[in-house]
Amino acid sequence: MNNEIMAIPEEPEKREGTATDLGCGTLHEPERMKSLVSLILVSSCLGMVPQFLEEPESMAVAPQSSVTLPCKVRDPKSTVVRWKFNGDFVKENDAKKFQINGTDLYIESFKHRRRVESNEGIYQCIARNEAGSLASKPARLSKAALKPFKGREDLHLTVLEGLNINLPCEPPASNPPATILFLVNGSSVISGKSGRFQAFADGSMLIHNASLSDSGQYRCMAVNSVTGRNRTANHIIHLQVLRSTEVKPLEKEPAIILSSTTIKAGKGENTVLECGADGSPPPNITWDRYGGRLAPDRHTVKSGNLHIFNLTQADEGTYLCTANNGIGTQQVKAMELNVEEPPVITTKSDKLEVKAGDSVQLMCEVKGKPVPEIIWYHNAVPATNLITGPENGVTTHTINNIRKSEAGNLPVHVQQ
């Protein structure tokens, strides 16, 4: 829906060409978790304000590596593109060694140590033509790093063949989060993504239906996908799998292992709620929904995990994983599912007529989950320093003593 604002000159002055038509539209497709949706006020007599075809994205960067931040615009011949770093316009070949390749920003060797030379921070692409300016969504460059494991003593575990056993692992701090693997007997590597091996978000790995061949020494290993660096825990997990005929089976009530207590997923996506359990005999895992029931045609349970397809807001809520093997009391743990929606912006008014010198209030409806944060820009410059959320789903911006010069590009930056 388009807004049209017409600035009408005050009487008695009569001048031609003083009317300014302003349109309202969305330039950016919504994105999950971090989005930019723009309310554009443009002067129709000057043409369309810049439109982005590609914008920079936040990322972790390995030290001393090269990085290119893209910025592609429609009609580049009539558009001037500049870059901002931490709020200031970029200067080429300064201490930070920025280079402009066409409309992209290139950093030959990413630095992070010294403040004067550091390339860590917030980047924005600013596109300008005769109709106005537009700022891209902010993109953060941060140093990719992997810290060492915390020290701890060796761990000795014993399990009967045919039962499940959980191997704990506390991942080290990493940007981005590390991929966790297990090194077995100093050579082979298990990813925990297939077969009898089930990896969890906390770094642990559950071995289903343990076999005698699983006996050995296990060490947790973390891999940073950006730097390629890996670290291995100093402590060893000694696992011994015993034949069921060698010892009398011990009865053990279930112990549940959840990948997380809260899961976030987008509307329309598929998601998996992971739940594992050990115990003797092996527990049976079932799923229920607190205060409701599972969607009969959009869920399935595989290897103890609940798969939900084509999520809707109605799927949001608390889910219960139950493990029961007939020993003691059945064990139940809860997992919260939050269904998120990307920001969507709409306008109420099709046309506003305002006399020069009057005030005008611009209004948009903003929806999204979680509640988006909003800031208004005028020609790529913040119109306010406040980042706010919509009140009852509505955001407003007031322009007092309106002048023809108020025509331009007024986007609403919405992010989650």
Automatic annotation (TrEMBL):
SUPFAM superfamilies xrefs: Immunoglobulin (SSF48726)
Compartmental location: Cell membrane
Keywords: Cell membrane, Disulfide bond, Glycoprotein, Immunoglobulin domain, Membrane, Repeat, Signal
Ig-like domain residues: 50-142, 148-234, 254-340, 342-416
Sections of the chain in a coiled coil: none
Chief location of this protein within or outside the cell: membrane
Superkingdom in the source lineage: Eukaryota
GO cellular component terms attached to this protein's record: plasma membrane
CDD domains given in the database record: Ig
Signal peptide range in chain numbering: none
Name of this protein: Ig-like domain-containing protein
Organism annotation: Magallana gigas (Pacific oyster)
